[in-house]
Structure formats: C-alpha cells, structure tokens
Amino acid sequence: NCYIGLSLSTQSRIQLISDPGTPFISSGYSPIIKISSKVWEDSSSTIIQMNQGLVRRLQCFKISEERSAYVTHILYVHRRRPSLIIQDIDIINPSDQTLDLDFQQKTQTSGK
After folding, report:
1. Which residues form the domain of 86?
2. How many CB atoms are closer than 10 A to CB 53?
3. pLDDT tens for residues 1-22?
4. 16 within domain boundaries
5. Is the pLDDT of residue 73 over 70?
6. Between the CA of residue 8 and those of 1, 39, 67, 97, what are the distances in Å?
7. Is residue 22 assigned to a domain?
8. What does pTM read for this prediction?
9. Cα 51 from Cα 28, distance rounded (Å)
10. Is residue 53, in this structure, part of any structural domain at all?
11. How many domains does the chain divide into?
C-alpha cells in the first residue's frame, strides 16, 4: 500500500510514496498522452478542478489568422476502480484543413 501521484508537467510520470515522511519514487511510467504538431503552432492551458477531481487541458493549434483547432484533455481517476486513470481526448477542427498531430506516450525513463 502506498500513495500515488502524477505530475502534469512535461515529465508526467507516476510517482509512488509508501510513507508521507519519505520522498516520492518515480515509476518511470507515464500514462499521459501528449499531443503535438510539427506543422501547427500551439499554446495550452491547464485547469485543475479539485472539487470534481478533474484536470482539464486545452490546446489550441493555430491554423491561420482566423482559424484554430482545439484539443481538450480531461484526466480523472475512475470512481469504482481507483487504480484506473482515464484520459478523454476530444479534437475539434472547424477548418477545412487536415490536422497533422503527433500522439506520444513515454513508457519508461532512461537509466539517468
């Protein structure tokens, strides 16, 4: 039995702690899917809703001066299965252009 934490930074690896008096230990596993693009400029913002137990992230990909595509991420822990972390991803593209997006997941750390 231990506590589990998840950083929402670029590292986003699961952190484990067995006793509140000891430091976290990185598991090296990151369940979070990162979305990026080599073509479109992006910006993002993260909202933490503590009362609902949600983390929302909104990414905007600038397609032109008038148009942007949006990616929303919602991250939460399943209520009946607390060991299950769920990430809902919704992509909205109101333009006629095809989006070129990369989906990435880091599964382990290098030994450094």
Report:
1. 31-104
2. 11
3. 566 676 665 556 777 777 778 8
4. no
5. yes
6. 23, 24, 28, 30
7. no
8. 0.70
9. 28
10. yes
11. 1
